[in-house]
Prior knowledge:
CATH class of the largest domain: Alpha Beta
Strand order of the largest sheet: 2-1-3-6-7
Strand content: 15-25%
Order of helices and strands: EHEHEEEHEHEHHEHEEHEEHEE
Amino acid sequence: MSNPNLTHILLVEDNPADARLIKEYVTEQSWPDIDADTPVIEHVDRLGSARKTATDDIDIILLDLGLPDSSGVETLDEMLGMSGSTPVVVLTGLDDERVGVDAVEHGAQDYLVKGDLSPRLLQQTLQYATRRERQQQQLQQRNAELALLNQVVRHDIRNDVAVILGWGDGLEPHVDEEGQTYLDRMLNAGEHITSITETVGDFLDVLEGTSDPELHPVDLESVLTNEIEKARSAYDNATITLTGDLHSGLTVTATDLLSSVFRNLLNNAVSHNDKPKPDITVHVEENEETVSVQIADNGPGVPDSQKNEIFGRGEMGLESSGSGIGLYLVDTLVTMYNGSVTLEDNDPAGSVFTVTLET
């Protein structure tokens, strides 16, 4: 394996014996693909000294969390804050290996147990940590470029579709009954394209989240009635009936993306319906600590073997055998809200999606 520019190591360790052993291990091991026989190792015994030493030419940092001027995860936090993109490998003792695991979850690239160290293990760990950090940086750069491309493409698509829909509306007085059928199909397809761009945008907002979402009370009545009205406008051949306990002041714990949950379920209920006039019933049931929203349709239904797969569970959404990104997004969002979404057969035909959310 090639060594990705691992020529300068910063060792932050206050125990002279441990520091001396690590220096010996670095010297003993043959390091490929660098100009010198071994990397240069810079040793400091205080976090304060590391602040002055953690310069851009440092390739990796070996960090003991128990220092005279700092201890515990706060030491790692400070080091990560000052080291920028330089990978950090934490050093732990035999009796606190769990600390190393926690450190990795907290942002360190890896950890080493001092009592288990060997020259070869030290080299491999530092090489792998450096390589992973570089790959993560490349992935972040690629994701940023893709996010920008997605933003531009979706913006251009929405603008072009808006122009097409405007031209279509202008054509209505000039087409006969047969032409009106094709014009309606064209306008519906345009609205569907716009809906897809919104769904993709919502999905990327979820994927790009760098921390847990801030859940807060969301007005269910406002969100649900708004999405029902939009669905009625988009699908004038469908009947959408609202029943149950929906009332002013009814809130659920979610985020502002809750509207995307119901938009996708309503679109799914109509777009996958094989009846000339889709019949959709939205029923709200309020319980002590939860609210359930059922969206029932009179479509073809879903075979039992596909009821779980349709959400893309256990698979990548776009690779799944389900109905596509819309239902995958629904399942992802509802799970994020600590809720659940289920699918059952409707009587006598069709499907019932039930979303249950905490109040």
